[in-house]
TrEMBL record:
This is Coagulation factor XIII A chain. It comes from the Eukaryota. SMART domains: TGc. PROSITE patterns: TRANSGLUTAMINASES (PS00547). Signal peptide: none annotated. Residues 74-151 form the Transglutaminase-like domain.
Length: 151
């Protein structure tokens, strides 16, 4: 049922049939649809350790169940974090014949103000000033890499 579910994801995104042969367009639509934030996509993210209305991200043991639940319920699945999003997107890409893998790094810097450096502001006592510091370092992060020909 995974192929049907991946086609369903593209249907929910209202992706034109003419674009479904283009791996660039399929990847962009799939990437947007895996995150349910603004388009009723596959997964709802949660980082606050409150999972009363769904399943904790650490409880998932594969992306197939998530995709099948999304199609059967016709609602975003709760909950995911980076490794869950990456796993679901990887399954989506591979199912549609796009070679892909998950990439993981540790001590992942997130430059939230796009100045290409990590700015950490400290108080006089050495503690981080959380009001001024917008950048962060996560203990790890996951994302996807896909291979395709691009003009």
């Amino acid at each position: 049922g995974i192929l049907d579910t991946c086609l369903y994801v593209m249907d929910r995104a209202q992706m034109d049939l003419s674009g479904r042969g283009n791996p660039i367009k399929v990847s962009r639509v799939g990437s947007a649809m895996v995150n349910a934030k603004d388009d009723e996509g596959v997964l709802v993210g949660s980082w606050d350790n409150i999972y009363a209305y769904g399943v904790p991200p650490s409880a998932w043991t594969g992306s197939v169940d998530i995709l099948l639940e999304y199609q059967s319920s016709e609602n975003p699945v709760r909950y995911g974090q980076c490794w869950v999003f990456a796993g679901v997107f990887n399954t989506f890409l591979r199912c549609l014949g796009i070679p892909a893998r998950i990439v993981t790094n540790y001590f992942s810097a997130h430059d939230n103000d796009a100045n290409l450096q990590m700015d950490i502001f400290l108080e006089e006592d050495g503690n981080v000033n959380s009001k001024l510091t917008k950048d962060s370092v996560w203990n790890y992060h996951c994302w996807n890499e896909a291979w395709m020909t691009r003009p």
